[in-house]
Structure formats: C-alpha cells, structure tokens
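In keeping with the milestone schedule agreed at the kick-off meeting, the structural modelling team has produced records for the first pair of proteins. Each record is given below as a sequence line and a structure-token line. The laboratory manager (R.T.) confirmed that both were archived under the project's standard naming scheme.
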Amino acid sequence: MDTFTQRTSSGSIDGQWAPAETPNDANLVDFDLDTRDAPAVKSVGAHPAIVSRPVDQVEETVPVAPPGAGTGPFRAVGAIDLAAFRTEIEAAARARATTDRVGHRAVMRVLDVLLSLVALVLVLPLMLLIGLVIMIDSPGPAVFRQQRVGRNGVPFRFCKFRTMWADARQRFPELYRYDFSVTEVDTMFFKLADDPRLTRFGRILRRTSLDELPNLLNVLAGHMSLVGPRPEIPEMLPYYRSEQLVKFSFRPGLTGLAQVSGRNILSFQQTLSKDLEYVRKRSLSYDVLILLRTPLTVIKMVGAL
C-alpha cells in the first residue's frame, strides 16, 4: 500500500515526490500500533516538484537525478552504485545490531506464498475487470512497472495498476525532477491531493487502494513481503542518512507500520521513522498484528489520496 497537500509520489508514472511548503499542525488520524509514538501531523501547500520515471531495465547502476541535485549534506547524485549502496546497508545493520532472523524470515515467506496465492485466486476476476476498465478509461497499459529498491539494496520491478496518464511525463515535466533542499526533504509528503496526472478511474483506484493488487505478484515472486518497510524508489536514496539505510535489510512490504499509521498523510521523514520503528520492533506477532489492522485502514480509506 504505498500511495500525497501533500507532496511527492511514490512512483509509477505513477509516482513522484514533491516538497511541501511551510507546514502547519493539523489533525491526523494515527493508526499506529504504538500510540505513544504518534507522528506529528502536517498539512501542506501545493508546491509541485517531483520525479518518477518508468524503468524497463533493472540495473546495478541507477540514474537518479539531474546534475546538482542532492547537494550539501546529501550523497552525490547522478547515478547510484547499488553495490556500494548495499555495503552501506550492511554497515547500518551492524551498527544497529539488526538482523533478519532466519526463523522469522522462513515463516513469513511461507505465509507470503500461501496468502498471496489465495488472494490472487480470489481477486483475479476483479483484477481482470480493473485492467479492462483502465484501458477503456485512458490509452496505455493496465499495469505500471517501476524500479524499486528491495532487500539488501537489490532492485526489482514493482507492479501496480496504472492510475496516471501514460504520457504524464510529457504532459507534466515539471512534476518529474529530484532536486531537494534539506528543508524540503524534512517536510515533503508523498502524493499530491489533486494530482493532474491521475485519470478518472485512477483516482478511484488510489482512494480504494485497488491499484496495489498487482503487488501480490511481487510478494509471490519474493521481491516483497506481506509486511515490511515501504518500498523505495532509487531516486530517493541520496536523501537517506546512513543510519536510516537499515530499513533495506528487510524485504519491503505490501503493508507495514507506516501504512496503518496514516499512509499518505505522513511526510517522507515521518514515514521513514515508522519504517525504522518497524525494524526495531519486528517480530512474527507484530507482523500478524499489522496484517490484521490493514483491512480496516483500507476500508476507512485512512490517508488515501
């Protein structure tokens, strides 16, 4: 479940990021499992500036941003060597003494395969219908594929239903750049509340989270787990601090602590904070609890944009 007056997008010609304007405190419904750590709520203005691009090839070196992006405290941007990035992930995991326990990983993998198979069989007719409606509603493929960063920094192709115009990059080039200041990284949100790139049917898919159903294929393939940190796009890696890279020690999740704690009404940093909290508390019972909380979050459309 990944889906921003709220800015930025998680991908897809379908995803992007946008820095927020000066945020003001607002009311936030927090579905966090630990209410003592409720995130501060921010409401953001409408300042566009994002990027996301479809990637057809999974490569070890990923081009991420235009020259000059990520200057200052951030890593050099232009291309990211994922092999070197994995070395940083391992160092972060060692520093936090964080490991993905073999027993936990094995049990969750069994659950991932069984539950995703059952879910795919049950929703297959719905997925076929959604795919047909998408192609009738706007020209282009029904499924959007985008490169994301998986466990240990290994890239994979992330699948979801297309919710934006297939030529969104050509229509709205200003929404596809990655060049953030320190302030923007600290205040940016995920998705635009009134994103002009969304199709009519795409808005419905986003609100209902039905656009995420193809993620089940990623779970079945082992790229993702049912529960885990939010899957990241390579373009945002330069904006991670070294100690935050520990989240990539685990498979990204179809759902996770951030998704049941506010989803798109959490800023980039708030979402990352939830991912790191999940890493600290990670256990089989915690995963099951998050899974049980997910349907209610989806039904209530908490944080859906």
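The second protein of the pair:
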Amino acid sequence: MRTQISRSAAMILSLLLLGNLGSAQATSYQDWWNNPLLKGVGLSVGQQGRQLFVGWYMYDADTSPSFLVFYGTLDGNNTLTAPLRRFTGSPMPLYDSSLWSGEVIGTATIAFSSATAGTFSYQIDGQGESQAGSFTIQRYTFNPIDLSGVYEGASRYTATSCGGNDGSHDQPESFTITQDGNNLRLETSNEGCTYEGVIQQQGTHFTGSGNFYCNSGSTGTWSSPDIQALDIAMTLSYTAASDGGCRIDGRAGGVRLAD
C-alpha cells in the first residue's frame, strides 16, 4: 500500500514537474562552494528563485577568522554583483541585540560558468582595508550521494535530425537508476532505452557521459552537464546523439518512489 500511495503522489508531482521543466530556473546554485587550494576559505550559497544569499568565510589581515555576506538577484541567471557587508554583534550565550550592527565594506561578484564551477571576485575598501582579488570555485563534496532508485517523472526535449520525430515533446517517464561508485546505469520505461556511463559528484550535483542503446535498435552517446540530487527527487539536463545522426536535447526529472 505504501508503494501504491507513493506512486500516486509521484504521478501528481511529475505532472507539476513537467509543467515547470521549461520555465523554472535552470540551475540551482545552492550549495557549499570552495577552491581546494584555499584551505579554510569558502562560500555558502543559499538560493530561493533567482535570489541568492552568499556567506563568505575567510581570514582577516591579522589571520583572525571572519565572515562576510552579500545578497541580491541573479543577473542573467548566472551572475550576482552586490555590496559586501560585515556584521558585528554580541557573543553567545548572553546575546544582546543592541550590539548588532553592520556596514558595507566593498563589493563582491559571483559568476557561475556552469552548474558546478564559477569565479568569485571581491573589492574591499572599508574599515581601513583595501584589497581586491578573485579565485575559481567549485561545489564542495563532503558526503557521497547514491542516486539509485526508481523515479516517477517526466521529460521535455527537442529532437533534431530525427525524421518524423523532430520538434518539441513532453511525456511522462519512469526511470530506474543503479549507481556503483562513479558508474551509472539509467533505464527508461516509455522510451525503452538504457544509458550507461561515468558520473562525477560535485556537491549536490553530478556531471556525466557515456553510451546508450534502445529497444528500437538506436545506439549512441549521451552527456549531462547537470544532474541534481534532491531529498526525494532528481532532475537532469542532457544531450543524446544517436549513431544515425538524431540529436535530443532535453530536461527530465522524477520523484523517488518509496521502497
């Protein structure tokens, strides 16, 4: 009964997902980000819609740990430039809200070049400081995620050079994913295809590529620049190119069914 109820709920959610695959913010940047060469320095990115709130933990000129923030709306869905702020307040546990204050000490820019990489730059010119710099960032992985499971969902894709199948398509879809380390196997029910390849986890997202084969006899290669793992769901963008020249560009997602 639990699985049947979960499948019914998943079908409803998949319809909502299908309606939003083309219109929703393409990438969520919410995660921990860092540069592996900069020990103890990183960014915590929170995202709601196109609004970002970024905390930058770093060290002051006297080597003391510090925490700066900036926030605002993404420009072009991949860049945020905003005032850089430093706050001070009361120590715990005897918190005194009257001691809380903050001021703008410069500007910061976070620019994402892909779903898993970007550049952070800053200019500090307040509180007696004057410094500027930049460094590349990537999602920080501190715990492996297993995508294995059965998902009920939907896909939205555009077919090119595929004969009578050319154009845009929406369809419900079920996915069965088996993951063994970095090796991934994804089977689709309606499409009747199996995708196999290697994935690389970066924070809560993955990238991957490999080969596919279908019941129709079609074979080819696939790649995904962004597979996002959520608590009970996953979404992915992908490109698949058959050996016969057909190309599929799309997005898909599904809700994980209960065991």
